[in-house]
Amino acid sequence: MKKIAVVTATRAEYGLLSPVIKELREKESDEFKLCLIVTGTHLSEQYGMTVDEIDDRIDHRIEIPVNSDSERDISVNQAITLVKFTEIFLSEKFEAIIILGDRYESLAIAIAAGNTRTPIFHMCGGDTTEGAIDEWIRHSITKMSYLHFVTNEISRNRVIQLGEDPSRVFNYGSTSIDNVLAIADMEREEALMSIGLSDCKYALCTYHPVTLDSGSVDQKVSDFISSIEAFPDIQFIVTKSNADQGGSRINELLEEAKKEVPNLHVFTSLGTKRYLSLMKHAEFVLGNSSSGIIETPAFRIPTVNIGDRQRGRLHAKNVIDCDDRSESIISAINVALSDEYIKICSTVVSPYGSGDAGKKIASKAYEIVMSGNIELKKKFYDLKG
Fold it and tell me: Rounded to whole angstroms, how far apart are CA atoms 113 and 323?
C-alpha cells in the first residue's frame, strides 16, 4: 500500500488543506491511503483546541510545544518537532508528505522529511511576505520539495527561478477559493447569531505579529485598537493571533481591550465555515493576514492591509495598504467604506484561481505517488539566457 501524509498544525492551514484532504480521501483503496497528521496549536488549549473543528479521520496526533515568547522558544519547538516527525516518518515510511506554506514548525517537518528521504509536496511556495520570518522559511522549504503547488503564475515563476524544474511546478490556484465557493454558505444573520451578535454593520479582523519588525507589539496593538474605537458604529470581529513570536502578547492585549471597547469582539477561533461566511457579508476585512489578501477578492469586498507582514504578496485591486499607525489605518478604513471604492471592488477579479485547486492538487499528488517514479536527486534548473 502506498501512503501520503498531510500535516496540519494550525486552524488557517487546515482550512487551506481541507479541499485536498477531501479529494484524497475519495481516492483511498486497498492500494492507497491518506494519513492525516495533526500537530501544533491544533492540540493546544491556549489556541482553542482547534483539533475539535477537524471533521475528518485523524490518523496521528503529535504534540509539540507551542510557546513562542522568545527566539529560544521557537528553536526549542523546532528541535522537538524535528525529532518527533523524524520518528514517525521512519516508522510509517510515507511515499510523500504534503505540507503548506511557511511556518517555523513546517520547516522542522521538512527537515525531518529530508533526513528520512521522504518526498515533500509543497503548497503555496513562491509567495513573498517581506515583513515576516515566513519569507525565508517558505523559500527554504521550496528547495527541499519535490512537487510544488503554487497559487498564482508569479509565484510559479519564482519557484522556477529558485532552480526548480518547471515540469514539477503546478499553478492550480489557491484552495482558499475552493472554500469560498463551497463552504461560505451561512446567511448573514445566522453567522452573526452564532457568535452572539444581532444583525449589524461589521468588519472581520486578524492581526498577527510582524516577525521581522523590531517595533513594539504593544504600540502596534494600541494603534489597531484605537482605529477600531474610531468607528463605534461598526462591530469588529477579531480572531486571535497565531503562535508566531509575539502572538501570545497580541492575544493578551486583545483580551484586555475587549473589556473596555464595546465594539470589539475577540474569538480564539471561528472555524473555516463561519469565518468565511462572516467574511462574505462583512463591510471589509482588517488586519495583516494572508486571508485578507487571497480570499477577499472572491467576495469582492475591501481589505485594509496593515503594515509589512504581507508586503510583496500578490494583491488584487480590492486591497488598501496602510502602515501600522492609527491615523493611517483610520484613513484606509474610510477609503474602504467609500462608495467609490466599493464600486471598484464590485468588479475585482481574483488572481488566485477558479475554485478547483483541491481536486487538481489531489489528482496530481495521487498520480505521482502511484507511479512510483519519484527521483529525489534533483537537478538545478537554470534559467535560459
Answer: 38
The CATH number of residue 229's host domain is: 3.40.50.2000
Q: Is 97 left (phi over 0), alpha (psi -120 to 50) or beta?
A: beta
Structural Rg of the chain based on CA atoms: 20
Do 265 and 361 belong together in one domain? no
Report if residue 376 sits inside a domain: no
Residue 298 cell numbers, joined: 472572491
Strand order in the sheet with 202-206: 264-267, 235-239, 202-206, 284-287, 303-306, 319-322
- Do residues 232 and 263 lie in contact, with contact meaning Cβ atoms separated by under 8 Å? yes
pLDDT per residue over 47-77, tens digit each? Answer: 889 999 898 999 999 999 998 778 899 999 9
**Do residue 315 and residue 257 come from a single domain?**
yes
Q: End-to-end distance of the chain based on CA atoms, in angstroms? A: 44
Domain range for 273 is: 181-345
Tens digits of per-residue pLDDT, 168-203? 999 999 999 999 888 999 999 999 999 999 999 999
CA distance 326 to 231: 12
Which amino acid is residue 201, in one-letter code? K
Under 8 Å between Cβ of 96 and 71: no
Q: Which residues pair with 285 in a beta bridge?
A: 204, 303
User: How many CB atoms are located within 10 Å of the residue 87 CB?
Assistant: 13
What DSSP assignment string belongs to 299-313? HT--EEEESSTTTTS
d(CA 181, CA 218): 37
Burial class (CB in 10 A: 0-12, 13-18, 19+), 259: exposed
Tell me, yes or no, whether 195 and 146 share the same domain.
no
The helix/strand/coil state of 191 is: helix
Task: Give tens-digit pLDDT for 238-258.
Answer: 999 877 777 888 999 999 999
Residue 197: strand, helix, or coil: coil
Strand partners, 286: 205, 304
Entry pTM:
0.81
How many domains are contained in the chain? 2
